[in-house]
Amino acid sequence: MMLPYLQLLAVAVVAFWILRWLWAFNRAAVVMWLLLPGEGQQKRRGLYRIVIARDEYAHGPGDPQPYKFYRPIKRATGPAVILYHGATPYGEEHATLDALAQALAKVGFLVFVPRLPQLMAVTIDKSNQRSMITFYQHICQHPGVQPGRITVVGTSYAGGIMLKALLEPEMRAAPPRAVLTYGSYCDLERGLKFVLTGRAEDQGRTFTIEPDPWGQILFFYNYLDHVPGEFDRVAVRAVLEHYANDRHEAGVAARDQLPERERRTTDLLLNSGDPESLALAGQVLEHARSTLAEDSPSSFYRQIDFPIWVMHGRNDVAVHYTEALALKRLMPKKVRLLITDLYGHRDISLVRGLGRNLKHLLVMVLFLGRFLRAVEGRR
Q1: End-to-end CA distance of the chain
Q2: For residue 2, is it within any domain?
Q3: Which residue from 22, 210, 302, 353 puts its CA 20 to 30 A from 250's CA?
Q4: Is the C-alpha dihedral spanning 268, 269, 273, 276 positive or negative?
């Protein structure tokens, strides 16, 4: 007589686990749907209504920095997700991060997007690690955030910086539940060579694209101190800062005010793809090599003892997807990798053919569904 009851119990347990999986993948599908071009505000039925608030965290003594908080109105507590922006002058207001934060909040997560002041000033240095740690510690004390239920996401150049920050004692003392990088690098020197030349190599294969001129500007702005020659670095850096922060007209005006020597130097640094500029960049890379290696996951990956979810767009023109492949090869058991044809560096770019789009969307939903289960502490 006991057998039917045991069978019913087994069926109930299996059904319960299937429903949990379906719920995770349903939410992943909703997130993807919300991120599709033109879909985000079309339908809200069945989703959480959210509130978007702005607050500040103590970045340093007398240095409060803003952050955005996305929360379902009817859910005061829940798993929290921190989205760290990359090197962008738009900081926490970046449109793509805003869309992702809203999508995650609408399916029930508490989402935080902090301003990282140096990355917002498109400066890539070790201070960004401290900013990430400081904000993480702030969120650990945030109302509604439960200890051990915080996930961190690093986008673009913030990805590699975030991985380094996670190795610090403060982060190891209270590690995040899940870690994801999007469009980030494995080897910083190799990544910088790609933005300068548009060339990437992987196991004998060579990939070539037209480099984005902004990449060269970002490079020389950050490593100007390694550029050889006698010139006023403060004046040249001020011009490059305008260009790096998408203030083109101000950059032109400032450049025109420079003395002739500084103007020639600036023109050389801004001349994307010019052989002389690329030769100069090669010299800079030689001087900065030790620093670049120190900040590259390829040099500290042996210290990483936690799983990493890695997502990369095959059409990324800022950080080539071969960087994600390289990280997977270094840590095959720790990296859970998705390379998708649907993404570039910033947003969705649908491929040709309905069938191909549906296939890539399904793969992304499966990947994101597994990730969202990890965010909630499930496998």
Answers
A1: 35
A2: no
A3: 210
A4: positive
One domain for residues 101 and 177: yes
Per residue in 338-379, pLDDT tens? 998 877 655 566 556 667 777 878 888 899 999 998 998 755
Asked if residue 58 and residue 127 are part of one domain, the reply reads yes
Q: How far apart are CA 55 and CA 130, in angstroms?
A: 19
180 with 310: CB under 8 angstroms?
yes
Identify the H or E element spanning 18. Answer: helix 2-35
Strands 110-114 and 64-72: antiparallel
- Greatest alpha-carbon pair distance for the chain in Å reads 96
Distance between CA atoms of 266 and 231, rounded to whole angstroms? 10
Q: Is the Cβ–Cβ distance between 165 and 171 less than 8 Å?
A: yes
Same domain membership, residue 135 and residue 234:
no
Last residue of a domain, one of 293, 325, 341: 293
Counting the structural domains of the chain, the total is 2
Q: Vertex 135, ends 36 and 295: CA angle to 5°?
A: 85
- Classify residue 76 by its DSSP letter: S
